[in-house]
Design a protein that fits this description.
Strand order of the largest sheet: 1-2-3-9-6-4
Helix content: 40-55%
Structural class: alpha+beta
CATH superfamily: Cytochrome P450
Distance between the termini: 47 Å
Oligomer: single chain
Mean pLDDT: 91
């Protein structure tokens, strides 16, 4: 993969000409540009603005780790996304982010997650009851509800009204779809504002904040201990001994809803899609489940020893990374392998393309879980399911525990009927599955 000082450009008129297709799925448009122009190109999006699309893994490593102090998240996350979900860990920058990360990190330590395993497992088993056998079903809604309920119960670990959960889930998903429209059709933002469409979605966010503030206040008044994430967040203290204020706490909970359920539900759906097309992998997982459960009743023992199941999930996230783009802006001029990046360059790194780059992976389009037997790949510059560097996803262990338990519980109960047709995708803020219709048979 080579980069030159002269970055190829895609004109605004070509961008506009493909606007409808880009709105539906921008990945073919980007793939064609990468193929024709190389591993980095400039896309002019109008109004004098442009974005550098990149699939060079070395440059991504440079931005996230080696020279990360010179790179910040783009306006997309710090402003566009933040207006819907607040200034939490995902959208914060600078000293504010550092202070929040230091405060919240202990809540996601492996020792703390042990307290949540029973709740996570119980929630998964309850949600899997919604799988109907004997006929094809759309599986994404099942995993979407499963992941959302898991986040809700891990944060609150109490009975929450169905109307509150539905309101929170609707707002989380609707605002994401609104943001996608704003990002892919920047030339229509004026109309979204004028027509009141943006305000209607901001009102959904305010309704979510009101629900969460009420739930937090109820917890404070109860004086009961629940050993959930909310307890940990309420008890967390800054270096000066103070606690998070109410608005910041709500921001962090909104971030957990947005980031904690969306990516997981996508990954679980794609994993099942791949298992349907690779029935031999299901057999291996089932054999593994029988072995680990015969050894112990301990949930953490299952997670730690479901090695092949973990390989399957890792390969699923390689082929279909939920966070399929990573955005960064350089604070000062930078130079990478002779490529000059002017101050303020907007960079969008395609994790999807890096994970499938033929120069980096053997048989990149093939489903090969065993490739991750090489542990070094997980921590290399070519694999980014949870990002990398200081901004690596704080909930990566939580997500892996949940996904391993979900796949173990599902394959133990059901056989996924073999399917041959290609997997379809719907890229939004995250990489979502499209028409993931599968059939299950009880074991």
């Amino acid at each position: 993969m080579s980069l030159s000082n002269k970055i190829p450009e895609v004109s605004f008129f070509r961008f506009l000409n493909h606007a409808n297709n880009i709105l539906k799925n921008p990945l073919p448009f980007h793939a064609k540009n990468f193929k024709n122009l190389g591993d980095i190109f400039r896309l002019n999006i109008g109004f004098g603005k442009s974005v550098l699309f990149c699939r060079d893994a070395g440059l991504l490593q440079h931005a996230l780790k080696k020279n990360q102090k010179n790179y910040t998240k783009s306006y997309i996350q710090t402003k566009d996304l933040a207006k819907y979900i607040g200034k939490g860990l995902l959208t914060a920058e600078g000293e504010h982010w550092q202070r929040q990360r230091k405060l919240i990190q202990p809540a996601f330590h492996k020792s703390q997650l042990l307290l949540l395993l029973e709740t996570i497992h119980k929630t998964i088993l309850e949600e899997l009851k919604n799988i109907k056998t004997g006929k094809p079903i759309e599986v994404f809604p099942v995993f979407n509800d499963l992941a959302f309920q898991t986040v809700v119960m891990s944060i609150f670990n109490i009975d929450i009204s169905e109307s509150d959960i539905n309101s929170l889930q609707h707002a989380t998903e609707a605002t994401q779809q609104m943001l996608v429209q704003e990002l892919r059709q920047p030339f229509l933002v004026w109309w979204f504002n004028l027509s009141g469409k943006t305000k209607r979605h901001l009102d959904l966010t305010q309704n979510s904040r009101a629900i969460l503030k009420r739930l937090v206040e109820e917890r404070r008044q109860s004086n009961k201990k629940h050993d959930d994430l909310l307890d940990m967040l309420l008890n967390a203290k800054y270096e000066d001994g103070s606690n998070m204020d109410e608005n910041q706490l709500v921001d962090e909970i909104l971030i957990l809803f947005a980031a904690g359920h969306e990516t997981t539900s996508n990954a679980l759906t794609f994993t099942c899609e791949l298992l349907a097309r690779n029935p031999e992998a299901q057999v291996k997982i089932l054999e593994e489940i029988k072995r680990v459960k015969s050894e112990s009743d301990d949930i953490m023992h299952w997670i730690k020893n479901a090695n092949y199941t973990q390989l399957v999930i890792e390969e699923s996230m390689r082929l279909y990374p939920p966070a399929y783009f990573i955005d960064r802006v350089n604070k000062e001029e930078d130079n990478f392998n002779g490529l000059l990046l002017p101050k303020g360059s907007n960079l969008l790194f395609s994790v999807y393309e890096i994970h499938r780059h033929p120069d980096l992976w053997k048989n990149p389009e093939a489903f090969m879980p065993e490739r991750f037997l090489d542990e070094s790949i997980k921590f290399s510059k070519i694999y980014y399911p949870f990002g990398a560097g200081p901004r690596m996803c704080i909930g990566n262990n939580f997500a892996m525990y949940e996904m391993i338990l979900a796949i173990v519980s599902l394959v133990e109960q059901f056989e996924i009927i073999e399917k041959k047709t290609p997997i379809q995708i719907k890229p939004l803020i995250t990489l979502k599955p499209f028409e993931a219709i599968l059939e299950f048979k009880s074991r």
